[in-house]
Amino acid sequence: MSKFHAFSCHLGVASLFLAIAAPACAADPQPIQITLDDLIVTATRIPTPQDQVASSVTVITAADIARRQLRTLPDVLNSVPGLNVVQSGGPGANTSIFMRGTNSNHVKVLIDGIDVSDPSTPSGAFDFSQILASDISRVEVLRGPQGALYGSDAIGGVISITTLRHKGETTQAALSAEAGSFATFNQTASIGGGVERFDYDLSYTHVHSGATDVTPPALVVPGRTTKPESIDNQTVATRLGAQLTENVDAGVVVRYVHSDLLSTADDTIGPESLRTTSDNKDLFTRVTLHHETTDETFDQTLGLGYTQYDRAITDPNATPVVPSTYHSERTKLDWLGNYRVLEGETVSLGAEAERELFNNSNPLSAHQTETAGFVQLQSAIGEHVFDTLSLRLDDYSTFGSKMTWRVAPVVIVPVTRTKLKFTYGTAFKVPTLDELYDSYPAWGFYANPNLKPETSTGIDAGFEQPVPGTDIRVSATYFHNDIKNLIDYNDTFTSEINVGRATTQGVEGIVTWEPSKRLTASANYTFTQARNDILHQALLRRPKNKASLEANWRVTDTLTLSTAILYTGSWIDVARSGYPSGIVTGDYVTANVAMSYDLGHGLEAYGRVTNLTDRRYQDPLGYLNPGIGVFAGLRAKFDAKQLGLAR
Questions:
Q1: Which of its termini does the chain have fewer beta carbons within 10 Å around, N or C?
Q2: Residue 373 in contact with residue 392, Cβ under 8 Å?
Q3: Residue 586 CB coordination number (10 Å)
Q4: Distance CA 4, CA 344 (A)
Q5: Three-state secondary structure along 449-498?
């Protein structure tokens, strides 16, 4: 990556905070050392110091995941401010995320730059349940409308996952195995390193949970029995890199997921005895070519990504027993160029071309194409005022063009180092191929090829403040999002139309405390109001209040403890059968603890307890979350010498 320039006080792009620019440039505090952990990529698509980013971003690292022994992506995201994670069953069951009160299909999800949404799903919402956490290096959760850089789906924000990459010529390998409650048996194996100009990573992860009871006893019909849910997920991932010349490098990432889920099926009177089988095969891959000039004033990346989903769902209770199959593909070519015009001024240009298709056993086959271009200007007005302006145009074969924009200024107040931030931008969500073309005449339901995109306009305004004389940092952000043209059923439930309007708003507060390298703690609270502006009702599955507390303590050089407490307030939900709606649920608190002990010689023993107080609750309504769980395992790490690869 390029070095970051020392910004000087000069006249640049107009900022909403320009009035403060002159006094801000007057003081010249000591420069702050920037490390990799202080850089944010997702907000601007350029590695940018966190203090210069106006958006609300939460970063979760591989070290955070390891300390808390998190096994799936929903576990990783569960305590992030502004997010509500809803899993309809046990591990492996469909999992949605509602970001800042927006819909579950209003979140853009990227893995190593690959758009991983499934074109064959009815709403386009990404199912987070199948992504395992063992090879995740970093997660950036970017909140607020992000259409100007990411196009469709980013009304609520963007979640970007980066997988592990080893550089240098040191080979490292690791193995782990663990077992515990709910018939859990998990294993991982990985190896990574480099040889001269090449680097490589290969990992295999197997997660098995075979006995998770998710059906509340009150829903079981007399005379029927229900069985626990079971998931078996095997994920293979590889990442290869090559430094072709001094200024050109190439990379390949491949991720293949095969999961088998046994879940409780429902009919008109309740949960059925025989479990539905879901066989899922997912492939994500991307090839990149990156070039940077010797003087580091210009760099560009060309990427080609491909996503494929194959799902087969069989309900043995149905007559006849015929699998429902779904197949989808997405091919995307993208280019991004960054030109550092002068000190503190960077222009980014991007272009994308995409084709997505799907077919199912309805039967139906459909596709659409999209092209897009965007421009962004990142500016520094001195050392204390920063601004980002973005503009994007998307053109779809199914409905035409859509333009989005965003402005995001930041002011760093000298002496106090107070960060004042503001963003104002737009976003949209295109209709899915299912919504446009998938009709079921036998049921009296018809697709609507005339649907238009859902649109939004949103703002963020807040501050971040290091408390003088302490290791405490506090921040607060107000957010507001107006969403129009929401796709919903018509009055007769025979089709979908653009009829909905919604408003989401609230406040996020975060406190972090790092008194030493051995002890860190953080707390966050989110208040969210999400209302249907047509019916004047609260939107489903958006709790008004959510808070979490986390602490990590390295007690000795060998012993580490971690704890996380999550509070979720009451929310409005719908019964598992779909009727009635508007049911107010109860709030709940859960606590998890984890411990690891270094045995020496590359061996580590670890264990964790989830839902420590055995709190039984339904989230969503009709699905009982697991009670207390106890797990233990052993991890072994090897270097090149131990592997017999040392030169």
A1: C
A2: yes
A3: 11
A4: 9
A5: CCCCCEEEEEEEEEEEEECCCCCEEEEEEEEEEEEEEEEEECCCCCCEEE
DSSP for 74-105? HHHHTTSTTEEEEESSSTTS-EEEEETT--TT
Find all residues with CB under 8 Å of 114, minimum gap 6, and list them: 253, 284, 285, 286, 305, 307, 332
Query: What is the model's pLDDT at position 6?
Result: 32
Q: Do 379 and 347 form a contact (C-beta atoms < 8 A)?
A: no
E strands along 10-78, which residues? 39-40, 48-49, 56-61
CA distance linking residue 538 with residue 544, whole number of Å: 10
Give the amino acid at 164.
L
What is the C-alpha to C-alpha distance for residues 21 and 31, in angstroms, rounded to an integer?
18
Domains for the chain: give ranges and CATH numbers: 18-639 (2.40.170.20)
State pLDDT tens for residues 346-394: 999 999 999 999 999 999 999 999 999 999 999 999 999 999 999 999 9
Sign of the Cα torsion 115, 119, 125, 127 reads: negative
Per-residue confidence (pLDDT) for residue 318, from 0 to 100: 87
Pairing of strands 270-292, 248-267: antiparallel
Give how far Cα 630 sits from Cα of 146, 178, 230, 387, 615, Å.
Answer: 40, 11, 17, 48, 14
509: how many CB neighbours lie within 10 A of its CB?
16
**H or E element in which residue 63 lies:** helix 62-68
Q: Which residues contact 386 (CB under 8 A, 6 or more apart)?
A: 15, 52, 54, 378, 379, 380, 409, 410, 411, 412
- Rounded to whole angstroms, how far apart are CA atoms 363 and 389? 45
Identify the CA nearest to 270 among candidates 521, 579, 602: 579
Ordered strands of the 56-61 beta sheet: 56-61, 136-143, 157-163, 107-111, 114-115
DSSP string, 547-614: EEEEEEEE-SSSEEEEEEEEEE---EEE-TTS-SEEEEPPPEEEEEEEEEEEEETTEEEEEEEESTT-
Q: Which two tokens stand for residue 62?
A: 């591989």
CA atoms of 382 and 248, how far apart (whole Å): 32
Q: For the chain, what is the mean pLDDT? A: 92
Rounded Cα gap, residues 188 and 178, in angstroms: 9
- In which region does residue 611 sit, left (phi positive, over 0), alpha (psi from -120 to 50) or beta (all else)? left
Cα–Cα distances in angstroms (integers) from residue 612 to residues 592, 593, 617, 627, 628, in the given order: 6, 8, 13, 8, 6
Q: How far apart are CA 250 and CA 2, in angstroms?
A: 16
| pLDDT-based confidence at residue 10 (cuts at 50, 70, 90) | very low
